[in-house]
Design goal:
427 residues; single chain; alpha/beta; 2 domains; Rossmann fold; 13 strands; MeTfrase_dom; SAM-dependent_MTases_sf; CMAS; 4-stranded mixed β-sheet; methyltransferase activity; 44% helix; Nonspecific Lipid-transfer Protein, Chain A; Class I SAM-dependent methyltransferase
Length: 427
């Protein structure tokens, strides 16, 4: 290109200002120019168009970068886990640009022609909703955004178990995701005290595609009511129940937990549901579930947590593309909210290493059948799932994210909770 400046020449100072002097990944730009690390590269970030920079100009930070990735104007070529970890480890702790760097960024953007029109937002993006958080209508829209993207796409990612929550890998098992998900369901059934002979009545809140309900009914003889507000989940869950020959034992309802009134249950499972409730609705949530349980009834709340809590803001990638209005509540606050609702908290178990392993298998499923995933859900949606699942796996590995099963019981007036003396009964 002679003496003419390349994209890398113009972009390099800005890149180093935001990612540190020695980025651990390579960068390749649309004119073919490159920026390489001093040592080994964890992979290549390909910036395919000036629109990638326009996304960052119009929405600086995480949201703009997310839009560039979802639109395909930025791509990651290599082991996504290594690349994300490398970028995380080399970026400065304070990602804000100083005044000098900010002016250089504006100059570089002008030189590259990135100060023009606003690029269109990717169609997969959820627009921020108006009105109070966690109304029934707003929750239904948020749930539909995430879960109603195609049952076949979820089957490809999740595998035969169709279970969208942390698995539990037992050392002596075969290590497969399907076996680990079955082990998780079985652990929850044992914690809830389900018995093969008793025909206990179980409520599964946020039942997904019915996997927990099917396991509890087929293995422990439970009479199960599963509720979800995802229409696509209801359709497939009912079909799976019928195919398992369990229509007389499992009922799947399209219903919000706030509509559950006047029924009695011996046990309640809430698996991967509480993240959609929000801390301000936690009291209402646990009060509602408490009112549905008979004396000595148990609740197992299985949910992602974050030390100190974390709200998925609308300017974040996860808040805009993955879990609109989602919130991760500190496990201590969860236990306290359960106690205030009248539960006696009897057990808390952390499973974060298991979730990291689960997510890595989901990413492998997606990458191994990438073309089919794109044909089912579109390239943008497939990109979203690849990035958020890989980043989440790293969050569970480094402790930034946690996941806990909190077991509560409703004691009788005498104080009898009907609980075993030790954990031995559920292993």
């Amino acid at each position: 290109m002679g003496d003419k400046a390349t994209i890398a020449d113009s972009f390099g100072p800005l890149l180093r200002a935001t990612l540190g002097p020695r980025p651990a990944v390579s960068f390749e730009f649309w004119d073919g120019s490159r920026i390489r690390p001093d040592g080994d590269s964890a992979g290549t970030m390909r910036v395919r168009s000036v629109d990638a920079l326009r996304h960052l100009v119009w929405a600086p930070g995480e949201l703009g970068l997310g839009r560039a990735f979802v639109s395909g104007t930025v791509d990651l070529d290599g082991d996504i886990f290594l690349m994300l970890r490398a970028l995380q480890s080399t970026a400065p702790n304070d990602a804000r640009l100083g005044a000098g760097a900010a002016w250089r960024a504006i100059g570089a953007a002008r030189e590259l022609g990135a100060l023009g029109r606003r690029p269109p937002r990717p169609p997969e993006e959820a627009r921020p909703q108006r009105g109070p958080l966690h109304t029934k209508r707003r929750d239904a829209a948020a749930i539909s955004h995430h879960y109603d993207v195609g049952n076949d796409f979820y089957r490809l990612v999740l595998g035969p178990s169709m279970t969208y929550s942390c698995a539990r890998f037992v050392p002596d098992d075969d290590g497969s995701l399907e076996t680990a998900q079955r082990a998780k369901h079985d652990l929850i059934c044992r914690k809830l005290g389900l018995s093969e002979q008793s025909g206990m009545r179980l409520l599964d809140v946020g039942c997904g595609w019915g996997s927990m309900a099917i396991h509890a009914a087929s293995t422990y003889g439970a009479q199960v009511v599963g509720v979800t507000i995802s229409r696509e989940q209801v359709e497939l869950a009912r079909r799976r129940v019928a195919e398992a020959g369990l229509s007389g034992k499992v009922e799947i309802r399209l219903a919000d937990y706030r509509d559950l009134r006047g029924e009695g249950f011996d046990a309640i499972s809430s698996i991967g549901m509480f993240e959609h409730v929000g801390s301000k609705r936690a009291a209402e949530y646990f009060d509602t579930l408490r009112a549905l349980l008979r004396p000595r009834g148990r609740l197992l709340n299985h949910a992602i947590s974050s030390p100190g809590g974390s709200v998925m803001r609308s300017r974040s990638f996860v808040g805009r593309y993955v879990f609109p209005d989602g919130e991760l509540v500190d496990v201590g606050e969860v236990a306290l909210a359960m106690e205030r609702a009248g539960f006696e908290v009897r057990d808390v178990e952390a499973l974060r290493e298991h979730y990291a392993r689960t997510l890595r298998q989901w990413v492998a499923n997606l990458e191994n059948d990438w073309e089919q995933a794109v044909s089912l859900a579109g390239a943008g949606r497939a990109r979203i799932w690849r990035l958020y699942m890989a980043a989440s796996a790293l969050g569970f590995e480094d402790g930034g994210l946690g996941i806990h099963q909190v077991l509560g019981v409703v004691p009788e007036a005498t104080g009898n909770a009907g609980m075993p003396a030790t954990r031995r009964s559920w292993g």
